[in-house]
Write a structure and sequence with these properties.
Elements lengths: L4 H7 L11 E5 L2 E4 L4 E4 L2 H4 L8 H11 L12 H12 L5 E5 L2 H19 L6 E5 L8 H6 L3 H4 L9 E4 L4 H7 L4 E6 L13 H13 L3 E5 L23 E4 L10 E5 L1 H4 L15 H14 L2 H25 L2 E7 L2 E6 L7 H10 L2 E2 L1 E2 L4 E4 L7 H21 L1
Parallel strand pairs: 3-13, 5-6, 5-7, 7-8, 8-9
Antiparallel strand pairs: 1-2, 2-3, 4-10, 9-10, 11-12, 12-15, 14-15
Helix pairs in contact: 3-11, 4-11, 12-14, 13-14
């Protein structure tokens, strides 16, 4: 069979518009397409490939588990799931873990649990969920409704009710919205898809205090910001604010699909047998890979390395911007960075992405005005340097075409 990019247009649902090149192999932070062209990967599969492509330890974990046991269903438990859950609870605030296959599923579980908790503990009046404009929490109907981007949630008919939004980093607006009818507040401790927006520390602390005041659960969506991405194991650890429920996915599996919801014993008790579930969630293959990924990343040397590499990016991006003047600021933390475009280049983030691909660099966007980098947490310094050389050429080509 002749497999080319044109086959996509013949056989796939057209909800994606992938690049013209087709990657076929990856090692570390380098990827090769069908024609043997080498790309540097600053995209990381959208903050997923936290240890790059085909990390030998992950390949080993996958192969070893693949020769033992793939899938059981949750009629049984399994050793990799139990080991991973123990490590997650040992190294976070949480006491209980629920496994899913993705960030959206972990968020769906978190929202359902929050609603069930409030219903059973306080009554039917306590059902409001508050989230934030430009937030992103997944593509299921519940999670996309809670996400604060109409472009993703509109056009599918009636939405789940009692979901309201307010501006991120606006504590006064939040305080005006929250009440004793609020069951949960869902927020990203670093907004990803919405433009790589860091939270004001006073805002996060204020949200936590108001949740406590009104007996509302605080849910941190750490699907993108978690597992070392910000230089902390989870972003909440750098904010001195602890959520009641935390969701994690993306980097957790290092490229293998897995998600998890973390919470306390008291809250978890409201998911009794039969109230929620997942056929594949917690399967031994996913958990074996995730356990090895977690072990490697949960290392002070790796986490410190993320912070050092962030500075390498920032220093070189500042030099590029001194020359080309296309960015108003560099946002984000660790290996989740956003280059916010100036007004002169408003709405053109896709042009920078396409130009980067032409220069054999893989990157991302976060909305129409931000170019996003979410590379491997252990990307070699020389790949950062070479990738940014290619990025400067891409920037120069966009500037020249203006």
């Amino acid at each position: 069979m002749n497999v080319t990019r044109s086959l996509f247009d013949e056989v796939m649902v057209p909800n994606y518009n992938p690049a013209s090149m087709v990657p076929v192999r990856g090692v570390g932070s380098r990827v090769w397409d069908q024609d043997g062209n080498e790309f540097i990967d600053f995209a990381g599969g959208i903050a997923v490939n936290a240890l790059g492509h085909c990390h030998p330890e992950l390949v080993k974990a996958l192969t070893e588990q693949g020769n033992k046991l793939w899938h059981l269903s949750n009629v049984f438990t399994n050793e990799p799931a139990l080991r991973l859950a123990k490590k997650l609870t040992d190294h976070t605030f949480a006491e209980r873990v629920y496994f899913a296959n993705s960030g959206a599923e972990a968020n769906e579980a978190a929202l359902k649990l929050a609603r069930r908790y409030a219903l059973e503990k306080f009554g039917e009046h306590k059902q409001q969920i508050i989230a934030f404009n430009q937030g992103f929490h997944g593509r299921t109907f519940f999670t996309v409704t809670v996400g604060g981007q109409a472009a993703y949630s509109d056009g599918f008919g009636p939405k789940p009710g009692a979901v309201e939004h307010c501006a991120y980093n606006d504590l006064a607006a939040f305080e005006a919205l929250i009440s004793d009818n609020t069951c949960a507040v869902m927020m990203e401790p670093l907004q990803g898809e919405g433009g790589i927006i860091s939270p004001d520390p006073a805002f996060v602390k204020g949200v936590r205090e108001l949740c406590d005041k009104h007996n509302a659960l605080l849910i941190f969506d750490e699907v993108q910001s978690g597992v070392g991405r910000t230089g902390h194991l989870y972003a909440y650890m750098g904010l001195d604010v602890t959520p009641d429920i935390l969701t994690t996915a993306k980097s957790l599996g290092g490229g293998f699909p897995v998600g998890a919801m973390l919470t306390t014993t008291d809250i978890a008790a409201h998911f009794k047998p039969g109230t929620h579930g997942s056929t594949y969630g917690g399967n031994p293959l996913a958990c074996a890979v995730a356990e090895r990924t977690f072990d490697i990343i949960n290392d002070p040397a790796v986490l410190e390395g993320v912070k050092r590499k962030e500075q390498l990016f920032r220093d070189t991006l500042a030099t590029i911007n001194d020359k080309h003047k296309v960015f108003s600021e560099i946002r984000g933390k660790g290996m989740l960075l956003g280059c916010a475009l100036t007004e002169d280049f408003a709405g053109q983030s896709r042009a920078f992405l396409d130009a980067s691909t032409q220069q054999q660099l893989m990157c991302l966007v976060a909305g129409a005005n931000v170019v996003r980098f979410a590379p491997s947490l252990i990307i070699p310094d020389e790949d950062i340097a070479e990738g940014l050389v290619r990025f400067e050429k891409a920037v120069a080509s966009v500037v020249a075409a203006k």
